[in-house]
Amino acid sequence: MSTYVMSDIHGSYDKFIRMLEKIDFKDEDTLYIIGDVLDRGPNPIKTLLKIMEMPNIIPIIGNHELMALECLEFLCKEITEESIKNVDRNIINNISNWEYNGSETTLKEFYTLDDDTKKEVVEFIKDFSIYEDITVKCNDGVSRRFLLVHAGLGNYNPDKDIYDYSLYELTWMRGDYFIHYYPKRKNFFVISGHTPTQLINTNPNPGFIYREANQISIDCGACFENGRLAAIRLETDEEFYVDDSDI
């Protein structure tokens, strides 16, 4: 039985399936996906539907799922005079912001679904976790605690409990890799995505998993040219990668 963490698939369905094969993902294993299944890549809804079939995958919300939720329910409504009257500047701004951040592929696939499946998709996204706090007994016999969150701990304060952070702080604010989160907590690690490791200036291996203090950053730019989908197995600390050459 193994515990895996993955992040920022962004519609890279073929890489996602290849990764499941590479890690030999079994029914007794658990996979946490820490946000951003949707947008940018070619098959975000296809990826999401696959995840919906697999009860041993636990998705955590990212900023792209939040943007989708702000728009999809409205976009599912029948266009009537009444619905048009209810369009306000907030809805327009949300749709515009999502479009700017890569909604095109998500919407293209979403509109091919029947009405019942559309509703199931929206309800499924609503049930995404905000974060997961788990303890894993590793192969060296040491139990380690992992806080899984999409972006990091924005506006970090050591006296601040995780449930005191806002959704914006957890899903939008980029991690500060010079901070050691909760240094008094032994064997405690924060795993995040959101910021492609290619963009972390202090990363000696851009495009691969980045570790600094007790932070582990695993967004390796799967949907970008020459990007990788990354996964980590918590029991053994093994890293796995899938790039374009693997599919």
Mean pLDDT: 94
Poorly predicted segments:
none
Beta-strand percentage range: 15-25%
The helix tally amounts to: 8
Radius of gyration (Å)? 18 Å
Numbering strands along the chain, what is their spatial order in the largest sheet? 3-2-1-9-10
SS-based class: alpha/beta
Textual characterization of the structure:
With 247 residues, this protein is of the alpha/beta class. Helices cover 30% and strands 19% of the residues. The protein is built from 8 helices and 10 strands. The chain has helices at 13-22, 44-52, 63-76, 81-85, 89-100, 104-110, 115-126, 167-171; strands at 3-6, 30-34, 57-60, 132-137, 143-148, 188-192, 210-212, 215-217, 229-233, 238-242. A 5-stranded mixed sheet has the order 3-2-1-9-10, with helices on one face. Strand 4 and strand 5 (143-148) form a beta hairpin. Helix 3 crosses helix 5 (89-100). The chain is globular. 36% of the residues are buried. The model has no long low-confidence stretch (mean pLDDT 94).
